[in-house]
């Protein structure tokens, strides 16, 4: 496991060279917020990092309910039973294994590894604009119907889940990147993903932190370029 720190944000990465999977620890005054729960084998790395910091994990926040973002959730909840678990109201259904679409949503099939054996129930269901410690929740559907991103109001660090990837190339969810197409292949709706990426590009984030790939400092122009490429691809597909 690799640890990369940028201010009060720690990126924990497994398999960084070929299939990076990230989760994040956000340092608050006397506690830690874990954003995403990575894979089932990620438990010990998360526990060791928290122990070294001598701070408890009091919140577990999920950007979306794909298996590589919730894999360690049940075991972490056992280790930190008082930790409050957060997920968007919409993706709470996916966390239960429910792939059904709601009325009014684009009827494209939900893709990716939706879990079927997670027993942990979320404590708080999030909506756009809610706050979790220092983080502001931003509704960013596209990769999944209920994907959320989180902006640290202190530092401008943007934890975007799979709304973007930075591995191999910075790209919007749904844009296939050669040699690492997996986030694109697991994206539910490309039109919604592009709209959410435009929303995130307007946050003036100081750091972009994603589910797959390295931290990206001063990401504004790179995010806009990724949005432009995604828009061009959508235009071609619509012809």
Overview of the structural elements:
By secondary structure, this protein is of the alpha/beta class. The protein is about 25% helix and about 25% strand. It has seven helices and 15 strands. The chain has helices at about 45-55, 65-70, 75-80, 90-95, 180-185, 190-200, 220-235; strands at about 1-5, 10-15, 20-25, 30-35, 55-60, 85-90, 125, 130, 135-140, 150, 155-160, 165, 170, 205-210, 215. The strands form three sheets. The protein has a seven-stranded mixed beta sheet, covered by helices on one side. A six-stranded mixed beta sheet has the order 8-9-10-11-14-15, with no helix packed on it. β1 (about 1-5) and β2 (about 10-15) form a beta hairpin. α6 (about 190-200) packs antiparallel against α7 (about 220-235). The longest helix has 18 residues, at about 220-235. The protein is globular and about 50 Å long. The protein starts with a strand and ends with a helix. The model has no long low-confidence stretch (mean pLDDT about 95).
